[in-house]
């Protein structure tokens, strides 16, 4: 962001917004290409992209989730093409919000994808070095302090929780702190179980089965992050497109489920003072369950392959 400081606020704003939109639709194009030969029609892919959760909210308020989407997408594209080391290096850039790595890194270790882990380590080493030189290495301690203070605001509900998409953000407004933490851990363990069962079968990275594994990874990450926000739902563009080639594995109502996830954030924006909880989290949890079931149905074909 430093180069934007050389421009006026208005010019910097429009440069940022333009870059956000370009990165977003470039991600759509890459995902669409990855779904061959069973890719959705281009018009449908663009419609899914154009109707993405809080896309317009994101572009008008200047959040950076489109950058994260681009890194998730490019990393997936490189994995599909067996460029595992390069994909890991790209995934390292997700560390600008380290929570994006909360499920990705453990799953890469679980699957023993060593080259991706080496790529992430190399990328992190480079980024930490650059950050220390450009700013200072003390800035990392200040960053940790800022995260700690922010976490306290979440626990005390000083920060409005209706815009959170994490499990803790769902339970904390409804329950005392201890119960909210307990329910969060219990629900997270179920998600982790589904995720590990989904990734247990080591299918080839270029296979269709890996698409659903990756969709499950992205969706679960949203729920397990400590303070993921509604605008992070832009990442659901990845599961929405990757599920299309396997739509026969999902019940007919999965389209309604996706539509509700897409629409709900705008109701939160309109009625935020009247909604104590965010209904997106149960919908995301339901989507994770459907992805888990679809993987179980696909498993016999994976084993045969």
Describe the structure in your own words:
With 305 residues, this protein is mostly helical. Helices cover 67% and strands 0% of the residues. α11 (208-224) runs antiparallel to α14. The longest helix is centred in the N-terminal third of the chain and has 26 residues, at 9-34.
Radius of gyration in whole Å, from Cα? 19 Å
* Element order: H for helix, E for strand: HHHHHHHHHHHHHH
Give the integer mean of the pLDDT values: 88
For the record, the count of structural domains works out to: 1
The assembly state of the depicted protein chains is: single chain
What's the quick description here?
The protein has 305 residues and is mostly helical.
